[in-house]
Amino acid sequence: MRLSRRTRLAGVGLAAAASLILAACGGGDDSGSDSNVITVYGTNPQNPLIPTATNEVGGGDPLNNLFAGLVSYKTDGSVENEVAESIEPNKDSTVWTVKVKSGWKFTDGEPVTAESFVKAWNYGANPANKQLNNYFFYPIKGTDDVGNTVKGADTVSGLKVVDDSTFTISLKSAESDFPLRLGYSAYFPVPAKAYGSDGKITKEYGDKPIGNGPYKLTAKGWEKNKQISMVPNGDYNGNRKAKNEGLTFKFYNSTDAAYSDVQGGNLDVLDQVPPSALTTFESDNQIKAYNEPGSSFSSITIPERLAHFKGEEGQLRRAAISEATNREQITDKVFNGARTPAKDFTSPVLDGWTDKVEGNEVLDFNASDAKAKWAAADKISKWEGTFTIAFNNDGAGNKEFSEAMANQIKKTLGINAEAKVYPTFDELRTVVTDRSIKTAFRTGWQADYPSMLNYLGPIYATGAGSNDGDYSNKTFDKLISEASAATGDERYKLIGEAQTILLKDLPAIPLWYQNATAVTSTDLKGFVFNWQQKPDYYALSK
Amino acid sequence: MWWYVGKRLLQTIPVFLGATLIIYALVFLRPGDPILGLVGDKPISPEVRQALRDQYHLDDPFLLQWLFFLKDVVTFNPDFVGLDGQPVFEKIQNAFPVTVTLALMALALDAVIGIVVGTFAGLRRNGWFDSATLLVSLVLLSVPIFVVGFVLQLFFGVKFGLAPVTVGGDWTIGKLLLPAFVLAIANIATTLRLARTSVADNLSADHVRTARAKGLSNGTVVRNHVLRNSLVPVVTYIGINLGSLMAGAVITEGIFNIQGIGNLAYQAVNRGDAPVTVTVVAVMVMVYVFMSLVVDLIYAVLDPRIRYV
Lengths: 542, 309
Fold this sequence. Notes:
heterodimer; A: alpha+beta; Dipeptide-binding Protein, domain 1; Dipeptide-binding Protein, domain 3; seven-stranded mixed beta sheet; four-stranded mixed beta sheet; B: mainly alpha; MetI-like fold; 2 domains
């Protein structure tokens, strides 16, 4: 009898504990899915919310909704004037005259003037202000190659305020698509109130920015490590009028948790699908799934300074490695179709893109030709040692694809190949930036503005800021600067020729375009990827 | 006893200094430039990179960096910021309550379930209930916490909607129950086994036989002579657990999106954010120290032979 009494007690205890958990767990859903406030995935911004300081998506997505620039991007990446009345070039596209529309106001009532832009840009370019986006100002006269004001001056000499609504921008060289750049967050205006008595933008402003965009912060605004909430700005009269009653950027530690929340109906938009869900998200009926080629480009850079990768020998070896890589197999098996094999150095979402660039057959898997090219290179100088691909282990799929690629190279070319791990992104970037790395390494590019030239100039032009492989080819440089000045079909023809040179030299081996993937709640309307692989937040509604 | 407590509290000072020094050395040895991590794929001008390195004293010898850190911590400098420009103390203040609550809840579940079930199992060693709990605890011990976490989240949260899927910034005790249970599971299994063995051992101890011989009722013997003595090792284990529960919350906090200390530490380590990393770990060290003090004091209550002077 005693035994049965005890076991009964124990059973009751367990049941009580379990029911306690269940009872208290229920009814915690307070996301208010009936109202037309859209909750979207976000991460806690890593910088103050200042246009020239924010360079990552956690802060960039909110900023793009809180501010309006001279131009705004349409979904397809083309631009239309927003705050600008007109942006007119001189004859050779080196000096641009900007007229600002009247009637634009910051949410505190201050009018948006030419000064609001010029002062913010001067601030961003001055290295003393330590703004991470200062490199965006490098095309403008009065800055050096990396966007610092010359000799640390307070102002950029190429920017001149003519009157309250007019200013001019003088460029270092002709650029016919310069206005394309001006929708990026680094070029947003900042009100006079933002600057403290010492001339620096205050910390308070960075926590609670005052903008001129389609949304404004609520009273709570940015709650650290929790969310940023914003409501439509009633005074806004631009191209991106909000179709919802507000946005809440909910912060997550991991996309896995966010994915579960979309499934559970607590989050409306997650604009990147976690690797763990890639095989299942398109067949999950609790959510709506989106998957299409995107604007971010992945490659392996093999600098010329590595032994056996100089000159003609290097060309042959790079081509052999490129042809030994079976991109379809990796995008399929490693990334479950969330990448699209590359056909060039840019992105299929851009105007003028084509999969028929002359010479791009080097990007197709071709084992016999790869072997032949490698053998030809061996005749110039015999290969020895191991071919190594360096990757950072904190990016999803990096390890898997680097190892798969090393294996393919090993198998096809019959040489030793391996993947080398760097635990974090900044460790890899440090050895790459300091040029102390002695191997090939993973590289990627996400464009700042929707132009194929933005994928070519900043990475492969001689001495460019992101030219990690120190590539230099005079003909390529010339074609790029001619293409910058040209318009229409002529421009795309020049870009094609420039890409053909890259395909021959392969300063970086193109791998794939990252697909834009997203999941949303089933009742969300208006979701379309723009060229930045982001939804147009203002167009979302329920 | 107060003299003893004071002595122990004084001991925390060298522990704090030593721990932060070691952690600072480790962060200093971490390769890579955290400034480049901030910058991402884009280029940065050497001038701005240097200005930022200077701001965070990254080029100073690590002993000097550590002294800067100590100065900021001891003076509670409100301008003591992490790499993202946010004040470190504010971050910890925001993250601490939810993690402490989570850990205490896990601890409570651990203690209640572990001790109750363990005692019943121990009182009837080798009975079917004992065998069943041993088997269940073996399973709980061997399944990794993230598997339990994802599975429970999927079933209770996503499929049946019995519990919130994630916690997020607006946390409440109710929302934390499922994560606390997940966090406690591995510990429950250990506590349960510890309590069971301890109770079973004590049942056959001399003083228990004496008590029975005196003619005391079974309930009195179990309550006053078996249970109380059996709890000393269990309390030690549970007490020390608070620290590991807080530190070990990284995975649980990730699965249930809890913006706590574990998550803060994880992100700071990833970014090479020395000010945040070292402060968080220093706080954790303090929690360990205080918990072991509390455990020592509870001994005296449980076991009359232990006295502090």
